[in-house]
C-alpha cells in the first residue's frame, strides 16, 4: 500500500472542493497546515466534478483545480468527469 | 453560405487530440532526422511518439485561461503586500536570509529551467511532448519573474537582495544550484527531462516548495507564500509530465531501462545535494517552523518517493543508488551546512547566526539522535567564542566537491565524527568529492566535470586570494550584506521600523 | 564511461596548476575536529617548507578549536591522500611530494574536547 495525495491552497474557493473530496473518499485523511490542506489516501483518490458542483452550486470544470493546486502524488488520469490519482497495486 | 456551427462541445480527450496531435505534420522536404538531430544520440529508443499523452490533457487555450487567473491572484496579494508594509509582518528579520537563498540560488534556477524547456521542446519530435514542454517553458519564466518581482519589495528595505544575479553566478554556495542546472542544460533532451522533469520536479520540488512555503505563511510572509504556491500549482503539472516522460521511455523499449536508471541514480543524488541548502533554510532560517527537514523528508522523500519507486518497479526500476546514504545524511546535513555558513559568513550575501537556547531545544527535540551529541557542543563553543568577543571566522575557506560544488562539510554515512574524504586522479589531475554519490557521477562522465568552475579555487587562480577584490566581484558589500545577523544593518532596521509600525512614539 | 555526445567530446581541466600564478592548492584536514566545517584550502608556493606551512597558516587556522593550542606538531599522525605518511618538516612541499590539490590529514588521538557529547 502506498499513499496518494493532493494538496490545495486553503481558501474560500477550495473549501467546498475539499468537502467534495471528503464525501467521495471517506477513507482519505485531511491534514490542515498553514495556508494549505493536504489530503492523503491509501493507493487511490477520486475527485468528481459532479460532487464538487453539488457543493459549490455552480458548474465546475475540473481543470479549474489547477488554479489552487499545490502538489500531488500518484499517477494522474483526468477526463471530463473525474480526476484520479493512483499507485500501481 | 453559412457554416453550420456545431453545437457539441468537445470532450476533454477529444479536445486534447485536436489541439495537440493535430498540430503536427509530416515534413515534406527535410527528413525527420534533419529536423530533430538530437533525438537519438543519447541512446533512447522511441517507436511511437503518439503514445506520449499529458494525463491532465491540458490544451493551450485552457492553459492561458488558468495561468491568467493565477497571475491575477498573485498580483492582488503582491500589491497588498507592498501597500501594507508587508515586509514588517514577518516574524523576525532572520527570516530574510531564507528569502535571500531563495532569490540567489532558486529563482535563477527557474530561469535556467525555462531555457532548458524551450530547447527540449524544440528538440523532441513528438507533438504532445512539444506542447507540454512549451507550457513548462512559459511556466518557468513566469516563476522566475514572479519571484524576482515579489522579492524586489524586500530589496527596497534590506541588504543582500540587490545583486542576486552576480551572487548566483559567482557566490560559492549558489554555484551548487547553478552547476545542477548547467549540468542538466548541457545534457541531451531525454537526460534533461529526467534531471528536471523527473528528479527535480517529482522527487524534490515538494521538499523545496511545500513545507517551506507553508513555513513562509507561518512566518507572516504572504508575498512568498503566494509566489511559492502559484509556482507550485504549475509544479503539479510538471511532476506529472516528468512521471509521464519516464513511463514513456520505459514503455517504448526495454533497452531504455539501464540508461534511465543511470540518470535516476545521478540526478537523485545531484538534487539531494542541492536540497542541502533547503534543509538549512527549514531547520535554521525560519524563525517559526512548521516541520523539520527530517519530518519533511519522511513525508515527501521516504513516503512519496518510496511510493513512486515502488510503482516504477513494474518497469524494472529500483530506488536510486544514493537512497540509503540520503536517509543517513538527513539527520546531519542542515547542521553541517549551517555551521559552514556561519563560519564563512564574511563571504555570504546573507546573514547567519548562532542558534538561541530555544532554537537548540527545538533542534534537539527534532534530531534526538544527532543534535545534542554532535552539533550542540560546536554551537556552544562558537557561542562562547562570540561572548569573548572572538566571533568564529574560518579563513581557511573550504575544499569543494568537484561534482556538487558544496564545501565538503559532510561526514561518512556511518561515522558522523569523520569527515568524508574521497579523491581520484584523472589524466594526472587530482579531484575531490563530498560523497560516494558525487564521485560516481564524476567517474561516469569525467570529461564533463573536469571543466567545472569551482568558486573557491577560482578566488586564488583569478584574484590571488584577494578577498576585497572578490567581494567587489561578487557585488558583496562588506559590513552590510554579510556576517552575523546580530549587530547587522538588517537587524537594526527591521527592529526600528517594526517598532514604528506598532507604536506611535 | 564517456559523455554522450554527437561528436568526440574532450574537456579541458579548469584547475590545472598552471592557472595558479606559480603557486598551488593544498587541502588540510584535522581528523575528528569538525568545528571546522570542511578541510582547509591553502594557497602556497611549492618551494614553501612543510614547517612554514604548519607553523604559519595551519597553526593560525586551528586556534578557534579548544584543542588548537595543545597540538604538538611533532607528535601528530599524518596522512597524505588518505594513506599514512611522514613529512620532512625542513623540506619543501614539492620535495615532500605534496602536489597541486593534494590533501594532507592529521590526527591527534588525545585531543577530543569537542568530539562527541557524553
TrEMBL record, chain A:
<dbReference type="GO" id="GO:0004497">
    <property type="term" value="F:monooxygenase activity"/>
</dbReference>
<dbReference type="InterPro" id="IPR036889">
    <property type="entry name" value="mOase_MmoB_DmpM_sf"/>
</dbReference>
<comment type="similarity">
    <text>Belongs to the TmoD/XamoD family.</text>
</comment>
<keyword id="KW-0560">Oxidoreductase</keyword>
<protein>
    <submittedName>
        <fullName>Monooxygenase</fullName>
    </submittedName>
</protein>
<dbReference type="Pfam" id="PF02406">
    <property type="entry name" value="MmoB_DmpM"/>
</dbReference>
<dbReference type="InterPro" id="IPR003454">
    <property type="entry name" value="MOase_MmoB_DmpM"/>
</dbReference>
<keyword id="KW-0503">Monooxygenase</keyword>
TrEMBL record, chain B:
<keyword id="KW-0503">Monooxygenase</keyword>
<dbReference type="Pfam" id="PF02332">
    <property type="entry name" value="Phenol_Hydrox"/>
</dbReference>
<feature type="domain" description="YHS">
    <location>
        <begin position="411"/>
        <end position="453"/>
    </location>
</feature>
<keyword id="KW-0560">Oxidoreductase</keyword>
<dbReference type="InterPro" id="IPR012348">
    <property type="entry name" value="RNR-like"/>
</dbReference>
<dbReference type="InterPro" id="IPR009078">
    <property type="entry name" value="Ferritin-like_SF"/>
</dbReference>
<dbReference type="InterPro" id="IPR003430">
    <property type="entry name" value="Phenol_Hydrox"/>
</dbReference>
<dbReference type="Pfam" id="PF04945">
    <property type="entry name" value="YHS"/>
</dbReference>
<dbReference type="InterPro" id="IPR007029">
    <property type="entry name" value="YHS_dom"/>
</dbReference>
<protein>
    <submittedName>
        <fullName>YHS domain-containing protein</fullName>
    </submittedName>
</protein>
Automatic annotation (TrEMBL), chain C:
<dbReference type="InterPro" id="IPR043010">
    <property type="entry name" value="Phenol_hydroxylase_sf"/>
</dbReference>
<dbReference type="InterPro" id="IPR006756">
    <property type="entry name" value="Phenol_hydroxylase"/>
</dbReference>
<protein>
    <submittedName>
        <fullName>Phenol hydroxylase</fullName>
    </submittedName>
</protein>
<dbReference type="Pfam" id="PF04663">
    <property type="entry name" value="Phenol_monoox"/>
</dbReference>
Amino acid at each position: 500500500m502506498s499513499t496518494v495525495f493532493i494538496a490545495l491552497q486553503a481558501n474560500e474557493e477550495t473549501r467546498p472542493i475539499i468537502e467534495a473530496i471528503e464525501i467521495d473518499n471517506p477513507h482519505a485523511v485531511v491534514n490542515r497546515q498553514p495556508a494549505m490542506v493536504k489530503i492523503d489516501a491509501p493507493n487511490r483518490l477520486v475527485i468528481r466534478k459532479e460532487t464538487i458542483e453539488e457543493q459549490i452550486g455552480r458548474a465546475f470544470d475540473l481543470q479549474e483545480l489547477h488554479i489552487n493546486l499545490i502538489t500531488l502524488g500518484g499517477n494522474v488520469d483526468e477526463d471530463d468527469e473525474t480526476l484520479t490519482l493512483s499507485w500501481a497495486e | 453560405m453559412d457554416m453550420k456551427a456545431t453545437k457539441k462541445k468537445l470532450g476533454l480527450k477529444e479536445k486534447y487530440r485536436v489541439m495537440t496531435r493535430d498540430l503536427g505534420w509530416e515534413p515534406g522536404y527535410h527528413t525527420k532526422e534533419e529536423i530533430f538531430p538530437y533525438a537519438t544520440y543519447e541512446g533512447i529508443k522511441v517507436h511511437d511518439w503518439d503514445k506520449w499523452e499529458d494525463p491532465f490533457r491540458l490544451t493551450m487555450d485552457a492553459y492561458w485561461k488558468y495561468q491568467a487567473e493565477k497571475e491575477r491572484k498573485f498580483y492582488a496579494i503582491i500589491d497588498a503586500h507592498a501597500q501594507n508594509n508587508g515586509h514588517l509582518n514577518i516574524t523576525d528579520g532572520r527570516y530574510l536570509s531564507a528569502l535571500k537563498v531563495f532569490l540567489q540560488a532558486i529563482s535563477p534556477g527557474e530561469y535556467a529551467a525555462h531555457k532548458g524547456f524551450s530547447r527540449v521542446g524544440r528538440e523532441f519530435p513528438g507533438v504532445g511532448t512539444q506542447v507540454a514542454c512549451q507550457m513548462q517553458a512559459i511556466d518557468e519564466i513566469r516563476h522566475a519573474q514572479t519571484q524576482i518581482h515579489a522579492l524586489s519589495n524586500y530589496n527596497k528595505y534590506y541588504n543582500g537582495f540587490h545583486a542576486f544575479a552576480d551572487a548566483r553566478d559567482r557566490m560559492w554556495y549558489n554555484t551548487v544550484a547553478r552547476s545542477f542546472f548547467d549540468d542538466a542544460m548541457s545534457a541531451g533532451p531525454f537526460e534533461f527531462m529526467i534531471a528536471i522533469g523527473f528528479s527535480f520536479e517529482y522527487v524534490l520540488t515538494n521538499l523545496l516548495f511545500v513545507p517551506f512555503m507553508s513555513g513562509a505563511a507561518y512566518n507572516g510572509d504572504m508575498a512568498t507564500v503566494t509566489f511559492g504556491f502559484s509556482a507550485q500549482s504549475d509544479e503539479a503539472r510538471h511532476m506529472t509530465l516528468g512521471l509521464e516522460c519516464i513511463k514513456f521511455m520505459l514503455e517504448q523499449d526495454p533497452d531504455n531501462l539501464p540508461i534511465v536508471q543511470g540518470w535516476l541514480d545521478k540526478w537523485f543524488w545531484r538534487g539531494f545535494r542541492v536540497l542541502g541548502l533547503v534543509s538549512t533554510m527549514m531547520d535554521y532560517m525560519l524563525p517559526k517552523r512548521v516541520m523539520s527537514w527530517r519530518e519533511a523528508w519522511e513525508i515527501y522523500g521516504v513516503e512519496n518517493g518510496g511510493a513512486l519507486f515502488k510503482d516504477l518497479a513494474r518497469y524494472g526500476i529500483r530506488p536510486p543508488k544514493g537512497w540509503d546514504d540520503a536517509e543517513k545524511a538527513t539527520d546531519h546535513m542542515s547542521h553541517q551546512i549551517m555551521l559552514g555558513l556561519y563560519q564563512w559568513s564574511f563571504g555570504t550575501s546573507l546573514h547567519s547566526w548562532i542558534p538561541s537556547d530555544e532554537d537548540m531545544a527545538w533542534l534537539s527535540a527534532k534530531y534526538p539522535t544527532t543534535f545534542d551529541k554532535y552539533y550542540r557542543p560546536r554551537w556552544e563553543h562558537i557561542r562562547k567564542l562570540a561572548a569573548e568577543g572572538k566571533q568564529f571566522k574560518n579563513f581557511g575557506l573550504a575544499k569543494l566537491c568537484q561534482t556538487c560544488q558544496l564545501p565538503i562539510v559532510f561526514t561518512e554515512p556511518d561515522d558522523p565524527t569523520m569527515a568524508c574524504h574521497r579523491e581520484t586522479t584523472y589524466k594526472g589531475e587530482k579531484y575531490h568529492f563530498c560523497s560516494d554519490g558525487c564521485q560516481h557521477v564524476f567517474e561516469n562522465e569525467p570529461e564533463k566535470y573536469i571543466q567545472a568552475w569551482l568558486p573557491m579555487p577560482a578566488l586564488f587562480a583569478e584574484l590571488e586570494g584577494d578577498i576585497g577584490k572578490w567581494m567587489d566581484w561578487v557585488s558583496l558589500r562588506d559590513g552590510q550584506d554579510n556576517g552575523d545577523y546580530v549587530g547587522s544593518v538588517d537587524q537594526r532596521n527591521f527592529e526600528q521600523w517594526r517598532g514604528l509600525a506598532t507604536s506611535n512614539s | 564511461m564517456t559523455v554522450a555526445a554527437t561528436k568526440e567530446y574532450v574537456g579541458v581541466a579548469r584547475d590545472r596548476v598552471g592557472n595558479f600564478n606559480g603557486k598551488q592548492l593544498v587541502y588540510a584536514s584535522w581528523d575528528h575536529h569538525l568545528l571546522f566545517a570542511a578541510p582547509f584550502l591553502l594557497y602556497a608556493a611549492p618551494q614553501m617548507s612543510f614547517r612554514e606551512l604548519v607553523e604559519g597558516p595551519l597553526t593560525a587556522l586551528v586556534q578557534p578549536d579548544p584543542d588548537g593550542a595543545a597540538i604538538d606538531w611533532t607528535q601528530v599522525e599524518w596522512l597524505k591522500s588518505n594513506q599514512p605518511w611522514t613529512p620532512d618538516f625542513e623540506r619543501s612541499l614539492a620535495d615532500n611530494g605534496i602536489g597541486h590539490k593534494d590533501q594532507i590529514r592529521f590526527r591527534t588521538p588525545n585531543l577530543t574536547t569537542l568530539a562527541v557529547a557524553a
